[in-house]
Amino acid sequence: MSVRPASVGTFLRAAPPDRLPEVVAQHLRTWFPVDDVELFLSDLTMTALWPVIDPDAAAGGPLAQRCFGSQQPVTDNGTGTVLLPLTTWGDRLGVLYIRFTSTPERETLAELASVADELAIALRAADKDTDRYRQVARRQRLTMAAELQWELLPGRSLGGERFRLAGQLDPAYAMYGDHYDWSVTDDRLTLTVLNGDGDGIEAALLTTVAVNAMRNARRSGANIVEQSELASDAVYSRYGGKSHLATLLLEIDLTGGAVEAVDAGSPKALIAREGGIRPVSLEQQLPLGMFGDSRYETQKFQLEPGDRLLVVSDGVHAATPGGKPPYGDSGLLSALRRTRLQPPTEAVGTVIRALRDYHAGAEAADDAVIVCLDWLRRTA
C-alpha cells in the first residue's frame, strides 16, 4: 500500500517554477478524495482573485474573497468546498480552492493547511524565475514607470508576533515616483515612504536610485541618518539638485515601541489610538538630493501597545481634485476611522478606495502611497 508523503514541499522544490499549481493539484487528487483544484492569485489592486490553472474560469467568488480578506480557512459543507489562504510572512498571495467528493475530516483540513503553506512559500521563491504568476495578477499592461516600481517593492504586507504591516500604491498600473520600502531585522523595523519628483519613467528612475542607495547603506549596518545622507548624496550626484525626493524614514523598536524618524519632506505620519487619530509632529528637513552634502538628524516619538501608525504620501493628504479642500483635512480622517476594525491589509485598500471616491472621476494629479502598521499588544 502506498504511503502518503509527509509533505508536498519535496515535489514543489523538484518542479519547474511555472508548474507549481499543477504539482499541488496532482498531489491532492492522488492522496485525497478531491474533485477539483484551483489556485487564485490577487490582482495588483487587491480587489479580485484570478484563476491560474484554468485562466478562462471565473474570478474567485465571495467565499474566496472572504478567505483572502480574513486570512482564515473557509469551508462550504454543502458543496464540499475548502478554501485556504496562501500567505508568506504576512504577505497575502491568493487562495487555494479545493472541492471534495465528500465532506473532509478535520484532520484532513490540518493537512491541507500545510499544503497551502508549502505552496505559498514555493510561489514566493518561484516569482523571480517565471512570469506566469505575474501575468495572472496583471489585468492590463503596466507603464514602464510602474514596472520599475513594482520590481522595487518589498512586498504588499508583512507580519510577525508583534506587528502587522501593509502598503498600497495607486494607480497600480500607471504610478510614477511614490514608493515605500521596509525591512525587519531582530527587533527593528525600518520603514520608508517616498514622494518621487517628476513624472513617468524619470520619476521611477529617481526613486530607484534613492531606494537602492538606502538599501545599500542599511544592508551595511548604517542607521537611518546614514541611509538618508547616502541616498541624498547619490541623488545629488546624479541630478545635481534638479530633482529630489521628499522622504520619511522610520526605525521602530518592536520591543518597546520607540520610533526614530528622519523627516526629509512631505509624507505624513498619523497615529490612531483608542478611537482618536492625531498627526505625528516632526520638524521637516530638506528633501533627499536637493543640495550636496546634506546632513540629517533624527527625531523621536513613542508608540503604545495597540497603536496604529499610518504614513501617507502627498498624493493622499494633499490631493485637491477639482479644487476641493485637501483630502487630508477631513476626508482622510473619515476614511481612517472606517478602518478601525480592519487589519492593515484591508485598511490600506479602504483608504485608497475612499481617495478615488473623493476624486469623483477626476484624474489624480499625483500617485498615492499609504502604509499601515499595527504595533500589537505585548503578551506575557
Describe this entry's structure for a reader:
This protein has 380 residues and is of the alpha+beta class. The protein folds into two domains: 9-136, 2-Layer Sandwich (Beta-Lactamase), CATH 3.30.450; 143-375, Phosphatase 2c, domain 1 (4-Layer Sandwich). The protein has helices spanning 9-14, 20-31, 62-70, 106-126, 132-137, 144-152, 200-219, 224-239, 314-317, 331-338, 344-359, and strands spanning 34-42, 49-51, 74-76, 81-88, 91-100, 157-159, 163-170, 179-185, 188-195, 246-253, 258-264, 268-273, 276-279, 299-302, 308-312, 368-375. A hairpin with a 2-residue loop joins strand 4 and strand 5. Helix 6 runs parallel beside helix 7 and helix 7 (200-219) packs antiparallel against helix 8 (224-239). The chain starts with 8 loop residues before the first helix and ends in a 5-residue tail after the last strand. The relative contact order is 0.11.
